[in-house]
UniProtKB/TrEMBL annotation:
Domain spans labelled Starch synthase catalytic: 5-230
GO MF annotation list: alpha-1,4-glucan glucosyltransferase (ADP-glucose donor) activity
Keywords: Glycosyltransferase, Transferase
Enzyme class: transferase
Protein name: starch synthase
Coiled coil (UniProt feature): none
SUPFAM superfamilies with a match to the protein in the record: UDP-Glycosyltransferase/glycogen phosphorylase (SSF53756)
Keyword Glycosyltransferase: yes
Cited Pfam families: Glyco_transf_5 (PF08323)
């Protein structure tokens, strides 16, 4: 049997970003998948906080050179890669870079703790850039596992703007919901900025709640399954999980990698059974 392909898309990962629920979870999950005979690709933003020399990033010229349109503006996409060893397993981590969005020396907030005004643009750029990069790979993932609110548009894009793309036709999308006030990061014009490929603001209605952006809600609606990634979540996010009409896995910490593998298998077996 050929190895199952798992695409991990994350807004954070150790050792490239500081230790938080998302970064530590992804850091443990990725090598575990490889050790369990799964083929993986990890994609994340190349924040200005990441030291390229220390982590030995270098540009992948064959993947770079695309332009991603956000809010009617073109932004060049540069792809970089680093090799991350882990107990005999060597992982390739790909970084999406753009000087306008990721050059700054902070991740999602400025030096005063205020969310960046262009976080909506950065999210749309990153999510569309991920999909276009995987198309360049020519690598059809069996599982697409999205970690964090900055990846929340990927389920939507794949099920709408890219629904006829053969590379993703059999992909199962898993969204990990972590405790974060995603709406605090995103301006009210989110739906307009996130509209691509002839999509309209109305198409993004699932990402709005009571007139404000609700990224987790939209992601869950378009995903095939959801994982509760944080032990503690707020009332709104708990309600989203309780109302979800898709499989939900409640697992965190050291049990998460093994449980995720079994969760993937159940989703793929369910597809075969149809």
């Amino acid at each position: 049997m050929s190895k199952k392909k798992v695409l991990i898309v994350t807004q954070e990962m150790e050792p490239y970003t500081i230790a938080k629920d998302i970064s530590t979870t992804v850091r443990a999950l990725a090598p575990h998948l490889q050790k369990n005979q799964m083929e993986i690709r990890v994609l994340m933003p190349r924040y200005g906080t990441i030291n390229e020399r220390r982590h030995r990033l270098h540009e992948v010229v064959r993947l770079s050179g695309m332009n991603i349109i956000v809010d009617d503006n073109d932004f060049p996409l540069i792809i970089k890669v680093a090799s991350l060893p882990d107990k005999g397993v060597r992982m390739q981590v790909y970084f999406l870079d753009n000087e306008d969005f990721f050059k700054r020396k902070f991740v999602h907030h400025d030096k005063d703790g205020k969310p960046f005004d262009d976080n909506a643009d950065r999210t749309a750029f990153f999510c569309k850039g991920v999909i276009e990069t995987v198309k360049k790979f020519g690598w059809p993932p069996d599982i697409i596992h999205c970690h964090g609110w900055m990846t929340s548009l990927i389920p939507f894009y794949l099920r709408t703007a890219y629904q006829t793309e053969p590379l993703f036709k059999d992909s199962k999308i898993v969204y990990s919901l972590y405790q974060s006030e995603a709406e605090e990061h995103i301006d009210p014009e989110f739906a307009l900025k996130a509209s691509i490929n002839a999509l309209a603001e109305e198409d993004l209605a699932p990402y709005m709640h009571e007139g404000k952006p609700d990224l987790h809600a939209g992601a869950i609606q378009f995903a095939d399954a959801v994982i509760k990634g944080s032990v503690e979540i707020n009332e709104r996010n708990a309600a989203l999980l309780a109302a979800a009409e898709i499989p939900v896995l409640d697992v965190q910490g050291e049990d998460a990698p093994a449980a995720s593998v079994e969760f993937y298998k159940s989703l793929l077996e369910e597809e075969v059974a149809k």
